[in-house]
Amino acid sequence: MTTTALAELPGRPCPIAAALEIVGERWALLVVREIALGSTRFSDIVAGTGAPRDRIAARLKALEWAGIVTRTPYHDGPPRYEYRLTESGRALLPVLDALLEWGKRHAVAPDDPDRRPRYRPMTELMKRGSR
């Protein structure tokens, strides 16, 4: 697992700032969400996030370097990989649950036509044996 030295952070350095250095880029937590939901292949992660392929490739490399995801080959020619959350990645699921609750209350209108009646918490999905 990669860590960030507080002395290297600008402004008021704290663990929040250090965490955001690792997972604060726009697509990082959405990549974690997609893997937790069972999208373990690159094309499925891209489709689930809606992000450009190059951004997801960069995020996956950064998340792997940080010890949040691992990749394992599933095809040799051309090389293709599946991604899984590490223990560190699974530890982010309560953060996603908190963002989900905050988003339901403060970021999405109750009458939004695309809003689902119920969202399952990420931690509940992992307990049920989802990736």
CATH superfamily: Winged helix-like DNA-binding domain superfamily/Winged helix DNA-binding domain
Number of domains: 1
CATH topology: Arc Repressor Mutant, subunit A
Number of alpha- plus pi-helical segments: 7
Helix content: 40-55%
Unreliable stretches: none
Q: Which architecture would the CATH scheme give at its second level?
A: Orthogonal Bundle
Describe the global form.
globular
From the alpha carbons, calculate the radius of gyration and give it in angstroms. Answer: 16 Å
What is the beta-strand fraction? 5-15%
Number of separate strands: 2
In whole angstroms, the N-to-C terminal distance is 20 Å
> Could you name the CATH class?
Mainly Alpha
Query: In which order are the strands of the major sheet placed?
Result: 1-2
Structural class: mainly alpha
GO molecular function, one term: DNA binding
Pfam families: HxlR (PF01638)
Protein name: HxlR family transcriptional regulator
Keywords: DNA-binding, Transcription, Transcription regulation
